Amino acid sequence: MKKATICILSAVLMSSITLVDAQETKNKPSDSIMKKVKDVDEIVLIGYGKQKKGTVSGSIVSVDKKILQDRPTTSLTASIQGALPGVTIKSSLGDVGSVPALNVRGRSVAGNSPLYIIDGIPSSAADFSRLSPADVENISILKDASAAIYGTRAGYGVILVETKKGGGGKMSISYNMYNAYQTPTYLPKYVGAVEYMKIKNEAYYNANNSVGYFSQYKQEQIDLTAVGTDPDRYPNTDWYKATYRKMANVLNNEINVSGGDKIRYFASLGYLKQESLSPTKGMDRYSFRTNTSSKLSDKLTVNSNISFIKQMINDQGGGINTTELARISPTMALRQSNGWWGSINAGKVDNTFANTNPVRNNIEGGDSKSNDQKFMGALSANYTPIEGLNVDAQISYSNWNYRSGTFVNTLNPVYNFLTKAPIGATSRAINNYSESWNSDELLNTQVLVSYEKKISSHYFKVLGGASYEDYTVRSIYGKKSNIPKDGLHALSALTTLDGTLDELRSNTQQYAFQSAFARINYNYQEKYFLEGIIRADASSRFAKENRWGYFPAIMASWRLDKENFIKSLNFINTLKLRGSYGSTGSINTIGYYDSQTYMDNNSSVLGNVIVGTAVPGKLGFSDIGWEKIVTKNIGLDGSLFSNTFTFSVDLYNRLTKGALMSNQLEYETGVLGNQAPPINAGDVENKGIEVTLGYNKNFENGDFYINANFAKNQNDILSLVNSKPLYSGYWITQVGGSIGDFYGYKTAGLLTQEDINNKYPKLYSSSQPGDIKYVDINGDGVVNENDRTVIGNDVPSFTYGLSIGGKYKNFDLNVVGQGVANVKVYLDKESSQAFFNGGNIKQYVLDNRWTPENPNPNALYHRVLPSGGGTQNIGVTSDYWLFDASYFRIKSITLGYSIPQEAISHIGLKKFRIYANLENYFTLRGDKRMKDFDPEIASTRSTYPYLKTISFGINATF
């Protein structure tokens, strides 16, 4: 994948140079004109303001609006995947309502999320994800010391969003609609019933070396299944086909109104309806936004921003257990011919699979509903008493409310199709209903004062400000069992049954931030730029003596293109060298009261009476402090050949000091689990390079562009508080290693008879030819836990993106690609291992396994065994189950056509465009072994499928 990526980027650069050279001489401007051509005054968002990109000294990137155009994604986060260097977006499950994870410049030990600011209001990743691209005016990401002005929570980057404000005088009405159809990118490929039975017999033979006696299935059963004339007793069930929809529909409608002069306005209304692949599940999302800006006088402007998003997910079923779906055998009946749920597996009753039938449990198991609402409102005023002096004040309020309810139905037993008797352990006699409510309120006030002045060739701007954030978090949970009738969905009503609930608990927590900050900007002749930042933050989460943190930063840049020795180079339009150094902080993993020891409520039985008691809750640690994150960055930006070719290069180093970790305290105190607070326990470094290349060309009847970016990041753990490694599942955290390191045994293919004869050291004494061959790393003649080592990493060290497009006459095309390299995924259990926990078997095992007839030591799968249990040579963590998760994916292809204005103006239309889009349809993958997992959401367990989309839409403007 690395070679492919380099080839792609080289092709981009060579194409750019070739196209530039091919310009006709008659179209080439004179040298004097070329030197007057300036870079486009692109506006980027900065902390508490905006700035021309040409005057910015920090590492700030903005999202090209073409990337967002007509993407039928239900997540804004997914829409920008691959668009920005150093910004890694990992899609979560493809189910409705999921929110992708966004990471800037590598990972730390925990709590790597950036800070989101939407219209000046601190927001969540979900708030950003659910924004409509049609509402967004600008997205900028602060990646270096420029984020220091946000202090405590800016250590891992800041995502700034400005929504549209309207203007332009006359009212304009726009309507956008698309209809999309979603199908899985990959579904697991399992064998059919006949192949399953044959290879299950082979597995039993391998385990017991006795033909026939230990066979799971007789030849008669196999033959009857192959004939297919008695599906009641000898079925062949495709469980994935039976469980999921073939296709899920998405419908999106948006309308917005904008305009105004002295009173500028923008309002939008949206409705999104999305089906899940689960036939019982779907989502409805409603969104509303209104922004106004009123110029009350030459000195006073008042602004308001109000938004509301309501997302409802309704599942009329009990949910799909994807693990049980991966386990159930194709020899098990889904339903019998008389309508009963399936009970027969290859001619015999199967109590286990009758009970875990994923289709039955989804349809009859119960239902769930969730209602997710977010309100955000801000009122601000800008006052300019004298020229150059600005006073801004803003008060904002946001409220997140989430309510969910889950009803678990009673279940009638499954009946034995052969005997007509109920099967034990397949019924559920007691139902229950649980309901939860969560609320998160924020009241935020801030005041900014800025003054700017130009004296001759010297420009100064000073900004000072203060802010206060007050958070209140509430939760309530209740549960009631043994309800007389399924489907009652109100705890308040259920309490009237007997006046009691099984569980009822509530919680209220409060915390606050107090901040003061300042920034000074200076430039000389718009050639030399200097910027300084200082921020002081206090958080109630810390003990008083550790409450304040201070975060300074300094940045500088030099416009080389304005120097005489560069002006003589006619092909250079702009060239800027910049550098930054500063510190930020992070408290992402700090609990609200981790600095304090507190007690929890509990209950005990004294005699026959239940009494309330207090038990130790969590150990406090008053010395907890901020993670201190020091960032260094040096960059070079430029544009060449009349701004046709652009480039940007950044080298960075981010050092996290005192990374917050909770399990380090276990070594010192013996306090385990949730009782252990985090402490400042380690230092982690991320360093790397980011490159962006662009080519833009206008020509008669159209234009063309091509942009590419790539980033290389290296992560190193420099220290831990006691230098002891931390083990968690497949991973290890240790000094000298990296975040995301897998830890286990190295393998060297499969054991041969020659290895057995030569007494090759074996991890298991019972190992036979065809079993996994583990490597004796330390050469002591024994394979044991001392031979474990780092075997891979699950964090991509190389990420890249590509966008190509343009317009010709009334047609437009936009293609977006994205990829990662040098990354592994660990796939064992149901995702790859044959018969794990009595489960199914994948086609790739059947096609590529070791057999006595094919004793290939490099076969892709070892000899099959009846179970994936750890006693059978395959249950330990090893690189045998590491798969290459590198990929390059064409994320989006959009082809549009705009009807000529002269053909629609007579009916009041300014613009009418139709388009078609393909999303996630084409993928080049690094792994060549198991090809039925999606590298973006790979998991050790079976997961909800990732989706590809075909859509058709319209844009109309009146």
Automatic annotation (TrEMBL):
Q: What is the taxonomic lineage of the source species? A: Bacteria, Pseudomonadati, Bacteroidota, Flavobacteriia, Flavobacteriales
Localization in the cell: Cell outer membrane
Q: What is this protein called?
A: TonB-dependent receptor
Gene3D superfamilies, per the entry: TonB-dependent receptor, beta-barrel domain, TonB-dependent receptor, plug domain
Q: Which residues form a coiled coil?
A: none
Give residue ranges for domain TonB-dependent receptor plug.
55-158
Biological process per Gene Ontology, one example term: siderophore transmembrane transport
Q: Name one GO cellular component term.
A: cell outer membrane
Q: Which GO terms describe its molecular function?
A: siderophore uptake transmembrane transporter activity
What top-level branch of life does the organism fall under?
Bacteria
User: Which family is annotated?
Assistant: Belongs to the TonB-dependent receptor family.
